[in-house]
């Protein structure tokens, strides 16, 4: 329960960061924090029945973690990582004309 | 059939990479993929609905029925038209590669029936759409693309939390699990889909994105890509009775919101983008018949975006003083008539079909939205036009302006509208014909009497980036209470 609260707290921190941080790079980092929270939540839910790595070992009688959320979140991690890479490339390009990377300034310059 | 489906889903991605290896074949391969999808959609209409479960209960589930068929057909026709439009424009292989991958991932959303496959497909759509939006590499296009990616990725993070809550409750990611899940799971998943599909206030990212992209890209985004977010909502509403009222409420709200903004917009492409929002509302307002409406809207909206790309200006005021080529005007009028619901075009059948499936409390609001739509498109219909007289010296110049690819694309899209019209021929009863004519008359009257001279500048702050993200938290609360009640 406590862990769940921390995870939700992390997601919320990231979300608020996306809104309140002024710098574009900081916004992207906030989004990363948010996705870290989401990933942690999957891991937490996977471990609700047990903590052992889900590799069957017939000599031991232990409770295994649920492999499905772990497998699923692996995909999401890869996707999240590639989206962030793509965004940072975009930011690099934008930084040539907007060296401060202030979001409000960029928005003003590029909205008709 | 299972093997065919899997091969068909994998083919666009495989071809996408082949295109990059063999750039000379790019256009042919891309159009080939669109044709394959059209053939596959045809087969869906002929065959039985399919429920496929790949691997075991944790695997991928697919549902393929007539509803998917309509969406897939839309995707195929719009992609084909866009590629033909770009045929002589000198776009690089990269563009065709992204268009093909986008086509494939949109198709994937139309058949998948579990939340994780949907997640993957939606994220691939985000990436491919981002690369298409930023194709010109200008600062503005990069910002618009970044904004799009930011909004959709944040929405998808909420969605992921919802998906794992569904799994926790049911040990499966199938759509049907939504019923046995806690309300917060439903709220989070709906938030993700609403933001992605451009529904209601969480869809206010859409106008800037769709209006600042290049015309062919706007056509694809408005014609099919937003429907990738709408389709899962429609599917959920059909699978699970309990969510049907919520979806209908959002449909009505979206239809009115979009049409209200569209009426007061002074820019052609932004008007079209707001009209897209309102038309998505029509799809959601009657989920049972959403497929046919989506097909009609996809064809007409991509045609309109392609036309807006060759108009001499984007400002209505300037267009009033710059007559457009009569031939282009005729295409514009056919498309506008269809979306207004004029008989002989498939917009008529789609509107009648939707009207029949509305619940009593929706009728007044949706009729209002229909009248609003006719007002919006009166702005396009009554643009001045003249026959283009070609002089010898500027002949080359004029022919360069409108390439033949444009006319072929129009032929496909507008021809599609007329052919699709025949599918639902039962709509042609006297009563059904009179109603849209009266609606159009009222709309045009209102346009000439009130809206033509009325200048109302709606504020743009609602489309600011921070607000777009912030609105998500509000939507989350709203959807949560709607599910609870």
From TrEMBL, chain A:
Alphabetical list of InterPro entries matching this protein: CPA3_antiporter_subunitC, NUOK/Mnh_C1-like
Keyword Ligase belongs to the record: no
Main location per the UniProt record: membrane
Highest rank taxon of the organism: Bacteria
GO annotation, cellular component aspect: plasma membrane
Keyword set includes Cell membrane: yes
Membrane topology: Multi-pass membrane protein
Keywords noted in UniProt: Cell membrane, Membrane, Transmembrane, Transmembrane helix
Subcellular location: Cell membrane
Transmembrane portions of the chain: 6-21, 33-51, 71-91
Protein family: Belongs to the CPA3 antiporters (TC 2.A.63) subunit C family.
Protein name: Multisubunit Na+/H+ antiporter, MnhC subunit
Originating organism: Hyella patelloides LEGE 07179
From TrEMBL, chain B:
Cross-referenced Pfam families: Proton_antipo_M
The UniProt record lists the keyword Transmembrane helix: yes
The protein's name in its UniProt record: Cation:proton antiporter
Record keywords, A-Z: Cell membrane, Membrane, Transmembrane, Transmembrane helix
Superkingdom of the source species: Bacteria
Membrane topology: Multi-pass membrane protein
Principal location class: membrane
Coiled coil: none
Membrane spanning residue stretches: 6-22, 29-47, 67-86, 116-136, 148-167, 187-208, 220-240, 246-264, 292-312, 324-344, 364-384, 405-425, 437-455, 467-483
Family stated for the protein in its record: Belongs to the CPA3 antiporters (TC 2.A.63) subunit D family.
Domain NADH:quinone oxidoreductase/Mrp antiporter transmembrane span(s) in chain numbering: 114-374
Localization per Swiss-Prot or TrEMBL: Cell membrane; Membrane
GO CC aspect terms: plasma membrane
Function, in words: NDH-1 shuttles electrons from NAD(P)H, via FMN and iron-sulfur (Fe-S) centers, to quinones in the respiratory chain. The immediate electron acceptor for the enzyme in this species is believed to be plastoquinone. Couples the redox reaction to proton translocation (for every two electrons transferred, four hydrogen ions are translocated across the cytoplasmic membrane), and thus conserves the redox energy in a proton gradient.
């Amino acid at each position: 329960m406590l862990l769940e609260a921390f995870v939700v707290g992390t997601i919320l921190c990231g979300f608020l960061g996306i809104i309140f941080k002024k710098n574009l790079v900081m916004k992207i980092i906030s989004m990363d924090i948010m996705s870290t929270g989401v990933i942690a939540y999957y891991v937490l839910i996977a471990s609700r029945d047990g903590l052992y790595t889900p590799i069957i070992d017939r000599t031991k009688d232990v409770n295994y973690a649920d492999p499905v959320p772990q497998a699923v979140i692996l995909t999401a991690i890869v996707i999240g990582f590639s989206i962030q890479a793509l965004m940072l490339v975009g930011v690099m390009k934008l930084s040539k004309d907007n060296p401060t990377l202030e979001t409000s300034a960029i928005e003003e310059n590029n909205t008709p | 059939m299972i093997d065919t489906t899997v091969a068909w889903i994998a083919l666009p991605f495989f071809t996408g990479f082949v295109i990059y290896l063999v750039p000379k074949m790019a256009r042919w391969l891309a159009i080939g993929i669109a044709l394959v999808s059209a053939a596959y959609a045809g087969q869906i209409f002929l065959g039985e609905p399919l429920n496929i479960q790949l691997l075991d209960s944790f695997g991928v589930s697919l549902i393929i029925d007539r509803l998917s068929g309509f969406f897939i057909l839309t995707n195929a026709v719009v992609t084909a038209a866009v590629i033909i439009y770009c045929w002589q424009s000198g776009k690089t292989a990269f563009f065709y590669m992204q268009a093909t991958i986008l086509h494939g991932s949109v198709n994937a959303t139309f058949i998948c029936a579990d939340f994780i496959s949907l997640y993957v497909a939606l994220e691939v759509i985000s990436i491919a759409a981002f690369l298409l939006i930023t194709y010109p590499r200008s600062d503005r296009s990069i910002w618009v693309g970044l904004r799009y990616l930011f909004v959709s990725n944040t929405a998808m993070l909420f969605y992921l939390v919802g998906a794992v809550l569904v799994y926790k409750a049911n040990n499966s990611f199938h759509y049907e699990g939504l019923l046995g899940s806690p309300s917060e799971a439903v709220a989070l998943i709906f938030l993700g889909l609403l933001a992605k599909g451009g529904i209601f206030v969480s869809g206010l990212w859409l106008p800037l994105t769709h209006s600042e992209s290049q015309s062919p890209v706007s056509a694809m985004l408005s014609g099919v890509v937003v429907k990738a977010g709408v389709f899962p909502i429609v599917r959920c509403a059909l699978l699970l009775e309990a969510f049907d009222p919520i979806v209908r409420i959002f449909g009505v709200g979206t239809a009115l919101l979009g049409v209200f903004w569209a009426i007061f917009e002074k820019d052609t492409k932004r008007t079209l983008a707001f009209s897209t929002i309102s038309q998505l509302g029509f799809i959601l307002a009657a989920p049972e018949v959403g497929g046919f409406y989506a097909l009609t809207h996809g064809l007409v909206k991509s045609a309109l975006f392609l036309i807006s790309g060759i108009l001499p200006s984007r400002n209505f005021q300037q267009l009033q003083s710059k007559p457009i080529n009569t031939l282009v005007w005729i295409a514009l009028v056919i498309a506008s008539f269809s979306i207004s619901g004029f008989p002989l075009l498939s917009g008529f059948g789609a509107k009648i079909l939707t009207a029949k499936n509305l619940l009593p409390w929706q009728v007044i609001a949706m009729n209002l939205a229909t009248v609003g739509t006719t007002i919006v498109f009166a702005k396009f219909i009554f643009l001045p036009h003249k026959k283009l007289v070609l002089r010898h010296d500027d002949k080359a110049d004029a022919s360069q302006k409108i390439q033949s690819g444009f006319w072929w694309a129009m032929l496909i899209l507008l021809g599609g509208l007329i052919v699709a019209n025949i599918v639902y021929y039962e709509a042609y009863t006297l009563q059904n014909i009179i109603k849209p004519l009266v609606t159009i008359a009222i709309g045009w009257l209102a346009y000439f009497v009130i809206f033509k001279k009325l200048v109302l500048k709606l504020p743009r702050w609602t489309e600011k980036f921070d607000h777009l993200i912030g609105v998500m938290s509000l939507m989350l609360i709203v959807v949560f209470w709607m599910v609870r009640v």
